[in-house]
Amino acid sequence: MKKTIEIFLTLIILAILLWGGAVWYFKYQTLPQSEIKKPAAVKTPAPKPAPSDETQSSTQPTPTPAPTPAPAASPFSHFSGRFIDETGNPISDAEIRLYAKTDILFISIIKENELETSPTATVITDAEGRFAFDCLEPNTYFVEARRNQSHSLWLLHPLSFAAGKDFTGFDIPMPAGAPLKGAVLDAQSKPIAEADVFLFGDVYARKFFSRIKTDAHGEFQFPDAPRNTNLVLASKKAGYAYTFRTGLRIPAAETSGTIKLHLDEELSIKGAVFAPDGKPAEGAEIFCKFVPDNAEKFPVTLKSVKTLSDGLFEFHNLGAGRAYLSIIGTGEEKILSRIILIEKGKSPETLSLKLEQGRTVSGVVVDEEGTSQTKTRLYYFDITGHVVSAWTDAQGEFTLKGLGEGGIYIKALSADKPEIGKMLSADGRRERIVLKKGASIMGKIFRADNKQPIPLAIFSVRNHGECLTNSRGEFQYHYLSEDKTAYTSANAENLASKYGPILQLKPGSAHYGLDFALSNGGTVSGYVFDEGTNKPIIGAKVFCTIPDIEPVYTDENGHYKLTNMPEVDLMLSASAEGYSTAKEQLAHPKEGEELTKINFYLKKAAQISGVIKTKAGEPVCDAEVGAAWGRFSSLIKDFNNETAKSGSDGQYTLSDIPAEEPISLRAKHDDHAPTFLGPLYLKPGEKRQNVDFIMTEGGSIAGAVMDENGKPLPETEVAANRPTNKHIMSSFVDIASTMETAKFVSADEEGKYEIKHLAPGDYLVLARAKKTAKPQFVYDLKKNIVVVEEETTAGVNFKLKRAAALAGFIRDDTGKGIEGARIAAFQMNFEKPMMQFDSSKNDGAFRIDGLPAGGYMLTAEKRPHPQIMKTNVIAPNENLELIMESGGTIRGIVLDKKTKKPIADYKIIAEYASAGLMPGMGMNIERQNNRSQDVRNDTGTFEITGLKSGKYNLKVRAASYASGQKSGIKVESNKTVEGIVIDMDVGIAIKGRVVRALDKSPVSGASVRVAGGEPNMFGMDMDIFDFRPKDSASLSDEQGQFTLENLTGGLKNIEAKKEGFLKGKKSIFVREDVPNEPVEIEMAQGGTVSGRVILKSSGEPLSDAEITFAGQGLIPDMVPFLAANVKSDNEGRFSFKNVPAGKQTLKVSHKSASPAMVENIEVNEGGELDVGDIALTAGGSIAGVVLDLGGKPISGAFIVANASTGIFHNATNEQGEYSINELAPQTYTVSAMLSHDMFFWGQTGNVQQQQALVEEGKVTELNFTISPGYNLSGRITQNNKPYTDATLNYSLNDPLQPMQNTGNIRANSDGRYIVKEIQPGLYNINVMRGQQRPGQIPIPVFTGSVEVRNDTVYDIEIPTASIEGRVIDFQTGEPIAGASLSIIRSTDAQTLEEVVRTGRFGLFGDSSDSDGRYLLEDVQDGDLTVFCQHEKYTYERHSMSITAGEKITNVDFLLKPGLALSGKGVMKMGGAPIARLFINMRDAGGAMIYNSFVPMASDGQFTITGLKEGDYTLNAYPQNAAPLYNTRCAIKAGTSNNVLLEFSQGGTLIANVVGDDDKPVAKAKVDIIDSTGKTLELPATFDNMMAYNSLAFTDEKGRLERKNIPAGSYAVRVQAFNYKDETVDARIEEGEQTLSAIKLSR
Question: CB–CB of 1246/1172 below 8 Å?
Answer without folding.
Answer: no
